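Lab meeting prep.
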Amino acid sequence: MLNPNMNSNEVVARTVLQPMSFMDILEAVFGIYQNYFRLIIGICTVYFILKLGVDLSKGISTFVLGSSGLQGVAIAINPGATWITILISLFFLGALLFAGSQIYLGRHITAGAAFGQVTRRFWSYLGSFLLLMITIVVLAITIIGIPFAIYLGTRWGFYAQAVLIEETSAMNALKRSRELVRGAWWPVFGIILALFFLSFMIEIVLQFFLLFAFGFTEAISAEDGMLEMFRRMVTPALTAWDRLAAYIIHSLINNAVTSLLLPLTPIGITLLYFDRRIRKEGFDIEMDATNEGDSASESIDILPRGDERNY
């Protein structure tokens, strides 16, 4: 695979493009994470610093304002902090998505280049995200529309890849995603759900065990049961100045775990996106033709070769 530290004069190794099962995608995700750890962790570290700063600022300012009798102001700043968190997460998910796509295609990529691509395409990226979220939220709040929200969320699941990799517009990104998912809604839904669930479970388990010793004494004395104990351990609140150190430690651990696991889902969905292009459009044949005779690239088969193009 491509060496993330190579210079432009070195040989570029190109991954053999091929249809992938869920286990192939999972293997490739962890392979990218392991082989390009410095690149991935560099992006995640910037995310960690910004996200931690927002969380600490929100928690401390909410406590100070609440203690000063300005509960209304404290409540008012929460939506702003939430939107800042969403924008930060969206930006860095996009950077990881684009970096993963370039690694998979055997192209040289740096963190700066990944950030640059997301910055350049950010308004289209944000626009497609808002179109998706508004539609899903409007359907979900009706309760009976939840199945339709899930259906559309899956159909439009490749919107970010269409915007950042194919550089299409916000509206066309949703149409492009729909084209790729058509005829394979259930496999796409199952793989995306599995990626989210796996990432979520690893995150919860790591957070729980890392925080257990630190938060167990306080949590076990609560009278609100196990759910309240779990909430206090995972989402701490600053309630007094003498709890500031505990609040900071909780936030550090939670954000560190979240940052380390952040790449799994966007890179996994990006590999699924390429899988759909290979199955529907012969993207692997197209890339082979493009790279044929290119002496500066070599193919490396990092996954078991499968001739069958069905899930």
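Slide two material, second protein:
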Amino acid sequence: MTPENGPKISFEVDRPGLSVAMVILDELKVGPSTSSFEVYEQETFSEIRSQMTLEDAKDDPILRSYRDLYWTFGMDPTKLRVSSEAVLRRILKGLNLWRISDIVDIVNLASAYHKIPIGLIDVSKLKGDLVIRTAFNGELFQRIGNKIIMCRGREIVVADEEKIVCFGYATHESKRTMITPDSSNVLVLLYGAEVVTSAVMEDALKITLDMIDQWLDCRVSEPVIVVS
């Protein structure tokens, strides 16, 4: 299954309980976050900090499930954090998130709030459909920021028919398919691990879409959830 006008996605990795929720944002106008969003963001930070500490995060079952998943792919989750844990830990340390663009700022906040990692892909830059697979030994990946990663042939990645577009579960996203001010057709991916039940995923998806509806001007496709 696929959202309207979006790529298909499939799993080649053999791990229990993996899932992906997909939604397409069309006619999106990417810009800076507004001052009113930044007020909302600070209020959400306060809510997050009132409910969890850094110590709590170590034993959170959702975050632990992603760490366990990374270990099975030979990835050290203390060095290569799933994106949701990375942004959540930054907030719990009392730091602000980066100012990148309205869409990126929104999904970073949503991901920290519900703890499900979110990836963003400019659909116009994709080559064919997507697959979640194991990287090839020696395969090269250029992340946002231009750093080149040479894969060891064990890591979990998301790839189109040409190259890797995401290293891990939104740990590093590709420079080739990154969101820019010209991006108008964007694929939003929420990545689920073993403890992320359908109810948890649907709740995370609702939170994310509520934020998108409140803070972005775009058309939103019907979401699709794909299970491995």
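Talking points for slide two:
The CA atoms of residues 166 and 173 lie 4 Å apart.
The chain has a mean pLDDT of 96.
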